[in-house]
Write a structure and sequence with these properties.
72% helix; 7 helices
């Protein structure tokens, strides 16, 4: 069965306010604590009892954590803050819908994850390309210094491309 949820501007505004609270939380605590909170929240979920529509989105939480912890990627601060806000929201058991309510407790988390992963798609895509390049270069280059230089150049190129694409997406098209 497929159920579609239509979010109206007022619904999105409510989610935006909740996410803004998570941004403030993420800004007030250490990054490692936000990441640990997200890991703890993931560990506390019994995968068998989580509805599949939620389980499909939990993979995003894991990807975001891995991306933040990847020192070679060095995600820039603005994007990093957005990811941390997402993880802070996910980690909060008392967000819009209390997480311990069966079946629907994680529904708001799934919706927020879906919306933010869509917003972060350029960041995630750039990270996937970086990881692919790292695997390719690691297999081809034995010189670790040469590998580090190539990865740094690729990271800088991908960060710049990611930023340009995000900026272009925010500019309205001419009529």
């Amino acid at each position: 069965m497929r159920i579609t949820i239509e979010l109206e501007p007022a619904d999105l505004e409510l989610l935006a306010h909740a996410l803004e609270a998570s941004r403030r939380t993420a800004a007030q605590v250490e990054e490692v604590d936000v990441i640990d909170g997200a890991k703890h929240a993931l560990d506390g979920l019994c995968a068998g009892s989580v509805p599949s529509y939620i389980r499909k989105r939990l993979v995003h939480v894991q990807r975001l954590i891995v991306m933040l912890e990847d020192e070679a990627w060095a995600l820039p601060a603005p994007e990093r803050q957005e990811v941390l806000a997402t993880l802070a929201y996910f980690s909060d058991p008392e967000d819009l819908i209390a997480d311990d309510i069966q079946i629907i407790g994680l529904l708001d988390d799934a919706i927020v994850l879906e919306l933010l992963v869509r917003r972060l798609r350029r960041v995630l895509s750039a990270y996937e390309r970086f990881c692919s390049m790292r695997r390719t270069l690691s297999a081809a280059l034995e010189d670790r210094l040469a590998l580090a230089r190539r990865l740094a150049a690729e990271r800088a190129r991908l960060h710049a491309r990611m930023r340009r694409a995000s900026a272009a997406a925010r500019v309205p098209a001419p009529v």
